[in-house]
Specification:
81% of the residues lie in helices and 1% in strands. The chain has 419 residues and is mainly α. The protein starts with a strand and ends in a 6-residue tail after the last helix.
């Protein structure tokens, strides 16, 4: 046997395989194509983080006008999530994902070349409608092909791919923006379209034909599911809190005399910790009770934001970001898997669409509510309110836990077959 120092190479390979198997093993090729496409798509996500800067510097919009454009984009995303869920159930996951991502690429270029407020607002609305339309189809695809027991690991790997791509995109986007903002629009457009075309060429339709009868009732049936509606409302509260780090935190740091560079250094800890830690803990967390895991994650996020009320330096802000990022990692390990457990096979797209509304709504409401709290009571009012909301979400999730456990038990007991 070949050796490396005093350790046989075969032994090292065996240890590596034993480490990787419970974390990434057992998934079909279709999942890995979807994972690769998700990573590719996020590597090109360069427009959204720099959109406000682009609108005010290159298109000459005022801060109010730029805020209007971004609000229109967020509002469009709400409708896009619901439309994407309905289309994924009615037309299929594959055609919905491909159409939405290729359409997003075209809308991205339309926004990049639009001039004048009316044209920019129109392009932003179109982009908003298409931008997240693929998400319910992607989530439904995972639920279609992965057994309930393995879904938390699968969704966790997708979460990791999203954050890895995002971290790289932020660095590349900032560099390319100095060469011209149109580079960002073209790269974002091409990676969106490439994701859809990859799925179209390499992924078969995963929607089960026998689930057609389960689609009866549409969104009305989803809204009558009190467990799902409660879960979405809890997630909306959690998302509102989580997104403060991406929306209002730079403004709070400015009050402490810390500029954009300081914020960039601090928030980089979020992506770095997710990329480093999430693959190590995802499989372990996935085996735990989902509601307890989420409640712990929500509580950690609340503690992290509560501690932010004491921060006034870059190092202190970074430390609090690390705390709430641990909570984000914890909750993300099971959040989407719960939706898949609650959804009947024929309504997986619509359940994913309603769940997506919690995220789009949270992202839309976070800067509106956060800035109001910051203006009314300063940073302490903002961060302590966030702590209270996150802890309330944790308590609500614990209360919802028994119902979720019953539904998961049914999902685990139901024979599963993927296409």
């Amino acid at each position: 046997m070949t050796t490396l120092g005093d350790t046989p190479v075969g032994t090292e390979t065996g240890r590596l395989a034993a480490f990787l198997r419970p974390r990434v093993g057992g998934f079909p090729r279709t999942f890995w194509v979807l994972w690769a496409g998700t990573l590719l798509n996020r590597l090109g996500t360069m427009v959204e983080p720099f959109l406000g800067l682009y609108l005010t510097t290159m298109r000459g919009l005022s801060l109010t006008q730029a805020g209007l454009v971004m609000a229109v984009l967020g509002t469009g995303s709400l409708g896009g999530q619901l439309a994407g869920g309905a289309l994924a159930d009615r037309l299929g996951r594959r055609v919905t994902l491909t159409s939405a991502t290729v359409g997003t690429g075209a809308a991205m270029l339309a926004l990049g070349y639009a001039q004048g407020l009316a044209a920019i607002v129109g392009a932003a609305l179109l982009l908003g409608l298409l931008l997240d339309m693929y998400r319910p189809a992607s989530q439904a695809m995972v639920a279609d092909i992965i057994s309930p027991a393995d879904r938390p690991r699968a969704f966790g790997l997708l979460f990791w791919a999203v954050n890895l791509g995002w971290a790289v995109a932020m660095v590349l986007g900032g560099t390319l923006a100095q060469q011209g903002f149109l580079w960002l629009f073209w790269i974002d457009a091409l990676t969106c379209a490439a994701f859809g075309l990859l799925v179209w060429r390499a992924v078969p339709e995963t929607r089960a034909r026998e689930a057609r009868a389960e689609r009866a009732g549409g969104f009305g049936r989803v809204l009558r599911d009190r467990v799902m509606v409660a879960y979405v409302l809890i997630t909306l509260v959690y998302t509102f809190v989580l997104m403060q780090g991406m929306t209002t935190m730079p403004l709070a740091m400015k009050l402490d005399g810390l500029g954009p560079r300081s914020y960039g250094l601090a928030i980089a800890a979020n992506g770095a910790l997710i990329v480093l830690v999430q693959p190590l803990v995802n499989a372990w967390l996935a085996r735990r009770d989902h509601s307890l895991v989420m409640a712990a994650g929500f509580a950690l996020v609340g503690v992290g934001y509560g501690l932010t009320s004491l921060a006034s330096s870059v190092s202190a802000y970074t430390a609090t970001i690390l705390v709430w990022t641990l909570g984000e990692i914890t909750a993300a390990s099971v959040l989407q898997a719960v939706v898949a457990d609650l959804a009947p096979a024929g309504l997986r797209g619509r359940y994913g669409g309603l769940y997506g509304v919690a995220w789009s709504g949270g992202f839309l409401l976070a800067p509106l509510g956060g800035t109001q709290l910051l203006d009314a009571g300063g940073a302490p009012a903002l961060w302590l309110s966030c702590a209270g909301l996150a802890l309330t979400a944790a308590a609500a999730q614990l209360a919802l836990g028994p119902a979720i456990r019953r539904r998961r038990a049914v999902a685990l007991d139901t024979p599963f077959s993927s296409k």
